[in-house]
Design brief:
elongated, about 325 residues, Dna Topoisomerase Vi A Subunit, Chain: A, domain 2, alpha+beta
């Protein structure tokens, strides 16, 4: 059965605090009685008394520069730069999420405080678009993208203008989402990836929580989640991603549980140098390096190319 959609449905199933939370505009809001007060997220002011949300009626109003208000539909459109289509996509995604009942994502007390006491996990699952052109260009099917909890997020906020992938700790507890930037100018200025603030990256091997019970059989170590997905699609379900080039002491302890390691980093200059450095360090007693063609990532290769390359180089 197809879930109902449309403006009336979204207005009934998405509340303003949920919209503001997903856009990252709740940190400066404070609860006074049955109203939220804070700076206006529409004109991005700093007056803590400018913006009000009536929680009972689910209406908002800006008393300063905007001098206007409305319901969740109006706010979604304004936060989407006036684009109705983008607002509709955002509301559609949010309408399928379980509301938290508060403005802020709750801290997951299961995350060891010793890792990063200031890190605040985002535990809710987002409804992402697994059919985005980015994934089609890599040859990743919607089924694969959905399986690994990735996709495009059309709302504003932290994940704006990115394709996102969910991140878990070693025990499989969700930590939030990382966003891969799509704009070339933004990539040149800030790099490809946006990571949640203070995320304990050195304690994470992406996809480890899915492989932990069978890690001893051997692991393929790559740089990016996309390479993990592409390898899985080609039949290699034992890949983890460093999400970079370095290997921390915590990651090393996880990798040492594997009987053997196939190091399959990207084929650019940085990846080649990192492969040589890791191989020379002999961080694992049974390590073998596999190189993709020059300037290509494992995710850039077809499934047939991956099968041929891994079969030929691991004989």
């Amino acid at each position: 059965m197809v879930a109902p959609t449309g403006w009336r449905y979204w207005k009934q199933h998405v509340r303003i605090p949920q919209l503001l939370e997903s856009a990252g505009h709740t940190e400066q809001l404070r609860l006074v009685g049955k109203r939220l007060w804070g700076p206006c997220p529409v004109h991005r002011g700093d007056n803590p008394h400018a913006f009000q949300v009536d929680l009972e009626r689910d209406l908002w109003f800006c008393f300063t520069q905007c001098a206007r208000g409305g319901d969740v539909i109006d706010l979604a459109r304004l936060l989407s730069a006036g684009c109705w289509r983008r607002a509709a996509r955002w509301l559609e995604q949010l309408s399928h999420l379980e509301p938290t009942g508060c403005c802020r994502a709750q801290e997951d007390s299961g995350i060891p405080a010793a890792v990063s006491p200031d890190f605040r996990p985002f535990r809710r699952a987002l409804r992402l678009d697994c059919t985005h052109l980015f994934f089609r260009n890599l040859g990743l099917t919607p089924t694969t993208v959905r399986r690994f909890e990735a996709g495009a997020w059309y709302g504003p906020g932290f994940l704006e203008a990115t394709v996102a992938v969910r991140v878990h700790d070693a025990q499989g507890r969700p930590l939030g989402y990382a966003g891969r930037r799509l704009d070339r100018a933004a990539i040149e200025r800030w790099g490809k990836w946006k990571w949640p603030p203070k995320l304990p990256k050195t304690h994470i091997l992406w996809n480890w929580h899915r492989l932990r019970p069978d890690a001893a059989k051997g692991l393929i170590v790559v740089e990016s989640p996309w390479s993990v997905m592409k390898l899985a699609q080609a039949g290699f379900d034992n890949a983890v991603a460093l999400c970079g080039l370095a290997i921390s002491s915590v990651q090393l302890q996880m990798l040492l549980r594997a009987r053997k390691i196939l190091l399959f980093l990207d084929g650019d200059e940085a990846g080649i140098h990192a492969s040589a450095r890791h191989a020379a360090s002999k961080f694992h007693p049974c390590i073998r390096v596999i190189h993709p063609p020059a300037n290509l990532d494992p995710a850039d290769l077809s499934e047939a190319q991956l099968i041929e390359l891994l079969t030929r180089q691991t004989r």
